[in-house]
Amino acid sequence: MRLEEFxxxxxxxxxxxxxxxxxxxxxxxxxxxxxxxxxxxxxxxxQDFTGKVGxxxxxxxxxxxxxxxxxxxxxxxxxxxDPPTAMVLVGLGGEAxxxxxxxxxxxxxxxxxxxxxAGSGDAAAFVLPRELILPLHRVGAAVAEGALLGSxxxxxxxxxxxxxxxxxxxxxxxxxxxxxxxxxxxxxxGRIAEAVSLARDLVNEPPSSLTPQKFADLFVQRFDDVxxxxxxxxxxxxxxxxxxxxxxxxxxxxxxxxxxxKAEYLPADPIDIDGxxxxxxxxxxxxxxxxxxxxxxxxxxxxxxxxxMGGAAAVMCALDAIAALTARIRVTxxxxxxxxxxxxxxxxxxxVLTARNGKTIEVLNTDAEGRxxxxxxxxxAVESGADxxxxxxxxxxxxxxxxxxxxxxxxxxxxxxLDQVKAASERSGEPVWPLPLPDDYRNHIxxxxxxxxxxGRPGQAGSISAALLLREFVGDVPWAHLDIAGPARxxxxxxxxxKGGTGFGVRMLVELVTSEEFAASLVQRSRPDx
Length: 530
Ligand code: BES
Ligand code: MN
Ligand code: ZN
Known about the structure:
This protein is an alpha/beta fold. Helices cover about 35% and strands about 20% of the residues. Manganese (II) ion binds near residues 290 and 369.
């Protein structure tokens, strides 16, 4: 393999007190010699290139010779070297930081920046820095995720021909053994990125196109030829006969009928812990459009509300990858799907709904609809015999106020489960932060007429009162709730995110479900005295 075959070669560059410098792999990859190479500090300065994470600098080696050879190695890069089309200096920050979860995140960001700078063509190459202190299969996965997610586009509704993009990304390592490990990792990362991209597609699809029925159909088709996956779709009659009063109530204002999707993954090679297989249930909020209902949102508030099925998309797409990666625990997904619309048949503020588990909810604000549909799905999750439940929901604007656009709120009733979700989110690079769930705030949702009301106190702890309502439906099953109102959507092309749906949560869930430690803890947690 010759570097000239690539349209672009990504070269790791680190920050330093004397200006940016190349990592040690670069000199040897190109010249076969060991040692590091400094970059011309003045030239970098003119280009505003410091080597910070996410910065890139493209140049064509034929015309420019900005690289000084390392002092000990003589003429490392001469003009006789056949130049690759484009050299892309890829900033990776401080070389001491390429370790642990933060190091993986740096690689994702670096790979995304590289791919965005590389342009289109058959293949590009990314030279791995030797300064990594990380297992190569994790490195391969991170590079694949960053590169694929950074080059994601949603063109389904554009008439212009989309740009060609890159055919292949080759990761350049130091040895065949490293190459094998990196390739194995990048296959895994690539499959995960495929699932994340599907979640992004679903969020990005316009709401009158992606109806509850279409969402369900899509997964019926997709899971059809996967023997470990089964899927059931409940229509409005079944939803009524199963007494899903929250979902039915929210759906009442819409001409689109609701659906409840129940999908199940039974591993071919299940983990057996004391004669049983751990069972995780994932629940996702699937409001395919949230107008607010009769408590109508403002035009601006509605603009991004096709995103309100981001939780449902994340859990279904996570399941897709979980099956493809042959995880060894049992996973069930429940997604209540409906629009939230105003009309003559819509629920009215002060109506009372009865959820699946028999508890009653006074609906004072029809825009707090997510917790109503989740109440039913969480009740079903408990009935299905879950060892633990995790729900993902674009639930409250208050979560965005508290944590901004990039961090999800994490709440729940079991500290061990919360700790594991948090750790998985650090490994996947999808930040979450805990919020408390105090019993003392339960009176925020006390109702004048029913078991609870669907809003808390104005301007106070909105994400917490929403989660306190959800807690009424999980019984004593260990449960974690992720309020992804902020991170489900990005308002800009940022790092490996693209403007629009992010697929937030897919990678974290896959990470969690494929972790053996998690599998073992699931069984222990549900039977604490053994
Ligand atoms: N889907 C929204 C929450 C949301 C807001 C998601 C902004 C993403 C960005 C949810 O259904 C909602 O409308 N929540 C209300 C609750 C309130 C009425 C108690 C909110 O947050 O304003
Ligand atoms: Mn709403
Ligand atoms: Zn909503």
